[in-house]
Amino acid sequence: MGGSVSVPAWFARSVFRAQEAAMHRPTWAVLAGLERTQWLGREDMAAYRQARLNALLATALAHSPWHAERIRAAGLVAAVEAGAATLDDLGRLPVMDKRDARENVERIVWRDVPGGVFKYTTGGSSGEPLIFYFGRARQAADAAGRLRARRWWGVEPGAREVYLWGAPVELSKTDRIKTVRDRLVNQLLLNAFEMSPARMDAYLDALARWNPEAVYGYASSLALLATHAEARGHRLKLPALRVVSTTGEPLFPHQREIVERVFGVPVSVEYGARDAGLMALESPDGALLEMSETHIVEVLDEAGRPAEEGEVVITSLVSEAQPFIRYRTGDVVRRTGRADPGGRSLGVLDAVIGRQTDFVVTPDGRIMHALALIYVLRAVPGVGQFKLIQHATDRLEVQVVPDARWGAHAETAIVEGLRQRLGDVTIELRRVEHIPPEASGKHRYVVSHVRLADALAQAVA
Predict the structure, then answer these.
(1) What domains, with CATH codes, occur in the chain?
(2) 9-23, 167-181, 207-221, 351-365: which has the minimum mean pLDDT?
(3) Which of 10, 28, 93, 197 has its CA 20 to 30 A from that of 418?
(4) Helix (H, G, I), strand (E, B), or coil: what is residue 430?
């Protein structure tokens, strides 16, 4: 878990620069651009976004046959070729969803994109795995967006940070190398997949020794750690800390309140998705600011019309490797069109309403973020869709909609992978033809019927 030894911020910053250069990621150049463009006037920002949109559509027209067909059907070829497609023209294209992205990936991906493509698999809100590809531009945009947002809070690149994040059960050679690299850039990783009371006690000690300027992690995991600290009467003393950033799921008001009370600093919400990218981050003014330079965010009602509250439909302007154009995220947000109180020309989201993740509890009392189990299922070939239901600490039901690659190997991999995470549990694996949504209409890929201790349950309810 590590001690208190950090490196000077200038050294950590230099290592990070060298790493990004070695990986051919233009992160620092993108950061410099974002620092400038956030202060553009509204007309200049609109022109900037329109130019980026035309570049994306031109790339899709030339290299993504599936998108090219849709661009032609919408009658936009001439405008795109002239670089004159407007933001309003974007609405002439039909929306795309996860099924479109999944079933047409080979007709969407541009494998020869400069810098190469990188494969990623995400579980998705329905538990239906999505394989997609991203490039250097997307990687750099996400990293630079976080660096810019940290600066809003007075945290410079290279400052000490703590990540309450997922980590593997056993560290491979690559993981061990990454741990060394993390320390050289002043990052300390605490495993959100292993949150027993004893482990959380150790995390609180590690936080005090590291004295970070920023803490970053899953919203519910941070609320759980804060609640544990308060129940223990543990008073956190983190004089350098400026902000706690939450991600991965909505942060409920009572969770924000306890995290801010225990950590003694404001919370900044981050909103993003593995497939859609980093979309918005909260500023010290309390505004959830969109990444307007890299994403066009539409909020649509059930009929597909612009609305103050509705589904987020994203066009990622940095998705050249596999264009996500008018992509339905499945998330619900509210946006009234208010301006950034800080004077930036970035869009503002009022609230992210959708998305929630459960915890699971192991037979030996460990509290584990549900993503630990999701990672197991989404890595197994043959799993078309899945849902996990924890009926008791020692009993887990696994529903799987198999695809053409399903076989005995898949069932073995699922059972072994889950037992590695959970320990000695009974796993009831059921192959089903369809997994219906919850009564609310939402799909949940992990549902736990095991209650945490009362104080901890309130933190993640």
Answers:
(1) 359-460 (3.30.300.30)
(2) 167-181
(3) 197
(4) strand
pLDDT of residue 122: 73
Whole-number Å distance between alpha carbons of 322 and 395: 40
Three-state DSSP state, 228: helix
| Residue 262 DSSP symbol | H
The per-residue pLDDT of the chain, averaged, comes to: 90
Which whole-number Å values give the CA distances from 425 to 29, 337, 390, 391, in the listed order? 50, 50, 10, 11
Secondary structure (DSSP) of 357-420: --EEE-TTS-EEETHHHHHHHHTSTTEEEEEEEEEETTEEEEEEEE-TT-SHHHHHHHHHHHHH
As a whole number of angstroms, the distance between CA 394 and CA 365 comes to: 11
Strands 327-334 and 351-352: antiparallel
Closest C-alpha among 279, 316, 320 to residue 115: 320
In the structure, what pLDDT confidence band is assigned to residue 173 with cuts at 50, 70 and 90? Answer: low
Distance between CA atoms of residues 207 and 202, nearest Å: 9
| 196 touches 367 (CB < 8 A) | yes
Q: CB-based contacts of 143: which residues, under 8 Å, 6+ apart?
A: 20, 25, 27, 30
Residue 121 banded pLDDT, cuts 50, 70, 90: confident
Cα 458 from chain centroid?
24
**pTM of structure:** 0.84
Q: What is the pLDDT of residues 24-51, one digit of tens each?
A: 999 999 999 999 999 999 999 999 999 9
Q: How many angstroms separate the CA atoms of 191 and 199, rounded? A: 9
Cα 240 to the center of its chain, rounded Å: 26
**What crossing angle do the helices spanning 9-22 and 27-37 adopt, rounded to 10°?**
110
Non-local (6+) Cβ contacts of 44 within 8 A are 345
pLDDT band at residue 453 under the 50/70/90 scheme: low
> Nearest-CA neighbor of 267 among 202, 217, 204?
217
For residue 105, give the 3-state DSSP assignment. Answer: helix
Q: What is the pLDDT of residue 131?
A: 87
> Which tokens belong to 21?
């250069």
Residue 97 pLDDT greater than 70, yes or no: yes
Place of tokens 């192991």: 362
Let me know: does 333 contact 349? Beta carbons within 8 Å: yes
Task: Provide CB contacts within 8 A for 423, sequence distance 6+.
Answer: 362, 363, 364
What are 225-247's pLDDT values in tens digits?
999 999 889 989 999 999 999 99
Closest CA to 289 of 342, 215, 328: 342
